[in-house]
Design goal:
Number of helices: 6
Order of helices and strands: EHEHEEEEHEHHEEEHE
Structural class: alpha+beta
CATH topology: BirA Bifunctional Protein, domain 2
CATH class: Alpha Beta
Strand content: 25-35%
Oligomer: single chain
Number of strands: 11
């Protein structure tokens, strides 16, 4: 089910409840209340709050939510109409699965692969070698020089606290425009993360069932 959540949220929901260190964000100088303190830097609080307010619904077959929308990040370099405005919009997709018996990690992992397939980005050879669908992955249609892979999420990453330790991953995208650059110096950049949500995060949003989520930048894929 697609949801559309509010672009403003509290500092607690945006950072503390997600077990993330508070960083810079676009803040309102005179918010109407505590729920509208900052412009969100992640789509996950909106999904988690949506799930929280729908706990009366049946979870027997699992609950699947997703949102495609913008976050806003502070940026002193980005220009809009030849003016440095101090912030920039970033289009992202986020999805969440919650169920009574399983966290759904394999479901959000499969969704990552599906998004990449639809964007004509092939898995890297190293990624293919770790899957059981070797032949199927090898013959997927993809743009020349584009590929992606998945690796274990580093504990030092800003998003790491949101996920259960050892049950999270980051998505690396490689494309010709980034040749010689990127997070690894070889044209690859981290464009998203996914994993099982940490129990403390679930408790902060009053959620009872194991859950998994993903958040992925869409603009680099276009």
């Amino acid at each position: 089910m697609e949801v559309l959540t509010h672009g403003l949220c509290s500092i607690k929901d945006n950072f503390t409840s997600l077990r993330r260190t508070r960083t810079s964000a676009v803040e309102l100088s005179n918010p109407a209340n505590v729920e509208y303190e900052v412009v969100r830097t992640s789509l996950l609080p909106g999904l988690l709050k949506t799930l929280k307010h729908n706990r009366s619904k049946s979870f027997a077959n699992g609950v699947r939510l997703f949102e495609v929308s913008d976050i806003v990040l502070p940026d002193d370099v980005h220009e809009c109409t030849n003016t440095i405005v101090g912030a920039r919009n970033v289009r992202r997709v986020a999805a969440l699965y919650s169920g009574p018996t399983t966290s759904g990690f394999e479901k959000v992992h499969g969704l990552i692969d599906r998004i990449m397939t639809l964007c004509e980005v092939k898995p890297s050879s190293s990624y293919v070698s770790n899957t059981k669908e070797d032949d199927e992955e090898r013959y997927k249609v993809g743009r020349e020089g584009w590929s992606y892979c998945v690796r274990e999420l580093s504990e030092g990453r800003f998003e790491a606290g949101t996920y259960f330790p050892g049950r999270a991953a980051e998505v690396l995208l490689k494309k010709p425009a980034w040749d010689g650059e990127g997070d690894d110096g070889k044209g690859s950049r981290i464009v998203g993360t996914f994993g099982i949500i940490h129990p403390e995060v679930l408790a902060a949003f009053n959620l009872d069932h194991p859950s998994s989520c993903l958040e992925l930048d869409l603009e680099p894929l276009l």
